[in-house]
Amino acid sequence: MQRKKILLAGQQNAGKSTVFNMLTGARQHVANYPGVTVDKKTGYFSNEFGSYQLIDLPGTYSLTSFSLEERVARKALREENADVVLNVMDAANINRSLHLSLQLMELELPAAIALNMMDVAKKEGIEIDSQKLATALNVPVVECIGRLGKGVEDIAKAINQAKPSQFTIPYPKLEDAISILTQRVDDLECDSKPASRWLGLRLLESDQEAISWLKSELDAQTWQELHELIEQQQSAVKAKLGTEINDYIVAQRQLVVSRLIDSCVSFEEQTSDKKSFTQRFDSLVLNKFGAPIFLIATVFVIYQSSIVYGYELTNYWWPYLAAFREVVASILPDAGFLYDPYVRSLGLWVVDSANTLLNYIPIFLILFALIAILEDSGYMARIAFISDKILHRFGLHGQSTLPMILAGVFAGGCAVPGVMATKGIPDNRARLAPFLPCLHELFGEDPALYIVVGHLFCRK
């Protein structure tokens, strides 16, 4: 029986990884998408309906092409030829989650929706009529609680019933232009061409990834004709709108989201003095005066635990590595008084090189555990929000804060964990932040020169 391919899509912190683990168990492996450093997690599972390959797409809030994760997710949706797209939504934040769901509907791929974290939604007084939502979006919608393993059977049924949605987001002031571009796109002969309406809409809003892809697929004359048509339609639309096309598209999408929520979701009225844990947490960590203190304390704990205490643990770990070296040395040919066999030299060199890297295992274990806690708690995104405005002045990103600390921008650190911590930064240039400590090798210890050079090094 042929194994069906499923793409798992969803926003960050929607419990997508939990659902992935719930479905696949231990039958999974992690690699990288070709040409990028974004994880590609693949798993396998079977049920009464068949055998499946599940690919976990990078978490993304939209299908624009601004960040690396968004570009990777879009490329996978366009090129993987998936049998089903399983969209995991955070039921407690359905307003935000529906934006990505609507964009997935526009791709016209067979889709199903899993409303995850239903227990959290009910605690917050949110009631979702999943059947009514399924009817409105014209795709199967099921409820699940990934962390408790509830909803596996329902998800299996939804995957088996998945189909392309007939739901269409109306863009009244763009429909004429979309229709003209869609007809033109239909005539193009391209490999892995997405839905014509979706592609026409992306061209109308000057989506750079879509434009680059079409340029590579078409000959120069065909692209020039299409480009002139795009510019013509954009000029006509802008004269009619009086605003940016992107802003109008987002506004129309939000209008549809509001209508769906009004018809399918009910909110229990809560007293004004009753706040959720998230609200109380945000009032503390995002407070104007408390936010810097909490941020500094958090970074200090991470730095002390991973770099300082982790390095001290290497004193207990290194003797085992040294003992392993002695075992290897005893197996290799003995060295003479004036002659050292190549086999022995090469063998010990390999072991010494490996031991140098393995010596950092305690540091990495602590670092990755703490970063995972920050990501799962949602505070990593809050760190980026707090420091983004300041770091943007230096051409960096808010998410550069943790890599800079771990790499030793402000104090002694290690560039290796700093580089590893840059994985979630969308801008490639901002990912260079951990290399700033290495500048002192070239420019000495002058702080003023160090800051100026660092600013020019990372500036866009």
Description of the molecule:
The chain is globular and about 85 Å long. It contains 20 helices and ten strands. Helix 3 crosses helix 11, helix 7 (175-186) packs across helix 8 (196-204) and helix 13 runs antiparallel to helix 15 (361-377). Helix content is 56%, strand content 12%. The chain is an alpha/beta fold. The strands form two sheets. Strands 1, 2, 3, 4, 5, 6, 8 and 9 form an eight-stranded mixed sheet that branches. Helix 3 (94-106) links the parallel strand 5 and strand 6 (110-116).
Q: How big is the Rg?
A: 26 Å
Q: How large is the count of helical segments? A: 20
What percent of residues are in strands? 5-15%
What is the number of E strands?
10
* Structural class by helix and strand composition: alpha/beta
Gross geometry: globular
- The pLDDT mean sits at 80
Taking pLDDT < 50 over at least 5 consecutive residues as the criterion, the unreliable ranges are 439-443, 445-460
**Separation of the first and last Cα atoms:** 51 Å
Question: Main sheet?
Answer: 8 strands, mixed
